[in-house]
Write a structure and sequence with these properties.
Strand order of the largest sheet: 1-2-3-4
Shape: flat
InterPro entries: DUF397 (IPR007278)
Number of domains: 1
Order of helices and strands: EEEEH
Pfam family, one: DUF397
Protein name: DUF397 domain-containing protein
Oligomer: single chain
Number of strands: 4
Largest sheet: 4 strands, antiparallel
Distance between the termini: 39 Å
Structural class: alpha+beta
Helix content: 10-25%
Radius of gyration: 12 Å
Amino acid sequence: MPEFVFMKASYSTLDHECVEVARNIPGTIAIRDSKSPTGPILRLTPTTWTKFTATLNTP
């Protein structure tokens, strides 16, 4: 199975408080805490990811 290739979020802080996202495996969006790269990974479908990110821009 291919490995996830994680990238830091564009809103990362200087205190290293951020999430990392991987989109390199079709059908799966993977999210992890950048402070714990060997910790748990949350896996979402692209549809769920789209719905989640849409809520981030609402007041």
